[in-house]
Specification:
Blueprint lengths: L1 E5 L6 H9 L6 E6 L2 H11 L3 E5 L5 H8 L4 E4 L4 H15 L2 E4 L4 H8 L2 H6 L3 E3 L8 H11 L3 E9 L4 H14 L4 H11 L2 E5 L2 E5 L6 E5 L3 E7 L4 H4 L9 E8 L2 H17 L3 H14 L1 H5 L13 E9 L2 E9 L7 H12 L7 E3 L7 H9 L12 E8 L1
Helix pairs in contact: 1-14, 3-4, 4-5, 7-15, 8-12, 9-12, 11-12
């Protein structure tokens, strides 16, 4: 089987391409992007199965022409609001299966509108199969299945913490590159966020609706409503659910304050997402200890902290059931790899444009993802679990 990997030399693309090339299911992987030098370096790292092609993922016709010779398009290119819709359109036109790591609600709505076209072409296109969204969609589905009935789902992400910001700052200092995920965060904070309340989608202001969230260890952190795709897709697959929301947890407190302050400046001064992200990184870079240091005596939540809670009824009582990854790799690369290989092996029978919860059984997916876990994590349970009984 042959894979066309858009953005295959990038931050998520290269490690995903390495894992896919290691599979017996993959005979060839072609890395596609705009930077020929980066593609050449990536091909050299992957080895004999790899080759490259210069391609702009924003050009649907070009994607379609190149993709026609492949069995699957894997998309880790960015920024997603520029590349995911034309890339998917190109893959569908070529009649080629597809998967990506898209995160934001506006993009996924536009992609879901292509569902009919994908079915006509006998294509499966799996959206947002990363860590969050992606693995957390399946955590939510799993929590829901373990209650008798569900009326509310909440997902929590914590990727915009000191570790992520430090990594982004290093990249910015090295070559001026600004991580598209950070740009995406400012994009979401600048636009109304889609949440699902009382069986209707409504829009809220992320900054105005920010709140304090209690983390493990009974301490609080700043939480912003965040416009990722789960609130768009989960209501279609979780029977009876009335409300779905996602929050971005930011700590330490001073970093949350800087994020909000920069977002307000972006609105007031008309900054682009890129300009806002650069301003944020420059401020952090001037005094990283001030912005990134966790206060003394505070144990930070794990950098990967992601959880999904389902609230409803169990055994005649109100309950809130929460799951989080424990023995699972805290990586977007692994869910994407598992999804791509399942498509290639013919294990996805559904056709159309689908979120993870629309085509994967959660526990079997978790078990396959766990085969990529570090040795020290393999003795752990796949998931952490808590249940809270509500009066």
């Amino acid at each position: 089987m042959k894979i066309l990997h858009l953005g295959g030399s990038g931050l998520f693309g290269l490690p995903t391409a390495r894992r896919l090339a290691a599979s017996e299911s993959v005979a060839e992987i072609c890395l596609a992007g705009r930077n020929q030098e980066a593609l050449a370096r990536a091909v050299a790292q992957i080895g004999d199965k790899a080759r490259s092609v210069q391609l702009d993922a924003r050009d649907a016709d070009r994607v379609s022409s190149v993709a026609a010779d492949f069995d699957l398009v894997v998309n880790t290119a960015g920024p997603e609001w520029e590349v995911l819709v034309p890339s998917l359109r190109g893959a569908i036109a070529a009649g080629v299966h597809y998967c990506d790591i898209g995160a934001f609600s506006g993009t996924v709505r536009d992609q879901l509108a292509m569902n009919g076209a994908a079915k006509e072409q006998d294509v499966v296109a799996i959206l947002g199969i990363g860590f969050d969204p992606g693995l957390d969609n399946l955590l939510a589905a799993h929590a829901s299945r373990n209650l008798d009935s569900v009326d509310e789902i909440q997902l929590r992400h914590r990727w915009l913490g000191p570790g992520f910001v430090s990594q982004s700052l290093d990249l910015y200092r090295k070559d001026g590159h600004v991580d598209t995920s950070l740009q995406g965060a400012f994009r979401v904070l600048n636009e109304p966020v889609s949440v699902y309340r009382e069986r209707e989608w409504t829009m809220v202001d992320a900054l105005e609706a920010a709140s304090e969230f209690v983390l493990p260890g009974s301490r609080s952190a700043r939480a912003f409503p965040f416009g990722t795709s789960e609130a768009v897709t989960l209501p279609h697959y979780i029977a009876g659910v009335r409300s779905v929301s996602t929050v971005l947890i930011v700590e330490p407190p001073q970093l949350a304050e800087l994020l909000a302050r920069t977002a307000l400046r972006m609105r007031a001064e008309g900054l682009t997402f890129l300009d806002a992200a650069k301003s944020f990184l420059r401020t952090v870079g001037e005094d990283p200890d001030r912005w990134l240091k966790t206060p003394e005596g505070v144990v930070p939540a794990p950098s990967w902290y992601t959880s999904a809670s389902a609230t409803g009824w169990k055994g005649g009582s109100r309950a809130r059931l929460t799951y989080w990854p424990d023995g699972l790799p805290s990586s977007t690369v692994i869910p994407l790899t598992v999804a791509a290989l399942r498509i290639l092996r013919g294990e996805v029978s559904e056709r159309g444009v689908l979120p993870p919860e629309g085509c994967f059984e959660p526990m079997s997916f978790f078990k396959e993802a766990a085969t990529y876990a570090k040795e020290e994590d393999r003795a752990k349970p796949l998931l952490g679990e808590s249940i809270e009984w509500i009066d």
